[in-house]
Design brief:
Helix content: over 70%
Number of strands: 0
CATH topology of the largest domain: Tetracycline Repressor, domain 2
Largest sheet: none
CATH class of the largest domain: Mainly Alpha
Shape: elongated
CATH architecture of the largest domain: Orthogonal Bundle
Amino acid sequence: MRSDAVANQLKIVNAATRLMAEQGLDAELTDIAHEAGVGIGTVYRCVGNRDQVIKTIVKDMVRQLTVSFKKAENQENVADTLLELIEQLHEIVGTYGWVHAALIGGRMAALRDEMHAIDPIGRLELLCKRGRAEGSLRADIEPAVISALILGSLSPWAALSLRSRGDARVVAQEVLRPFLAHTTKGTTTCA
């Protein structure tokens, strides 16, 4: 793909992501083209129809999620690692929360497999097992429960509520604090 086509594709995907964050799946392709500052023909040439635009956005979100999990899995101190991972997950949901809401509502069933392939609950559970083994997470709460509750904090309505308390770091601290065996260096508590 030529560099101007790549630049246009990026502008279109960014514009679509912003509009869909506001309007959900009801955002029109003409509005996306206008927001990106390109013609509708450019949208079709560079990305495709509305479904292809959505699929491109979901693939980008999946890529970001995958990178965040891989980074967390390769770090040492689980409590600090989880704090950073939860922060990143909340930032991703802040950008792509409409995808999550659409998946929950059954409006994007065809893309559900891509999301399941990430296996966030399984990956979080493994991190929580490591945290219990190293003593940074409470031993009296099952890793599966911690994982489910952390992921539950990403639900759009919960994320918006938590986000109103501060930035993504504050949200991550609020989510992780009940599971910590003790406060670790680098992990601050909220007042």
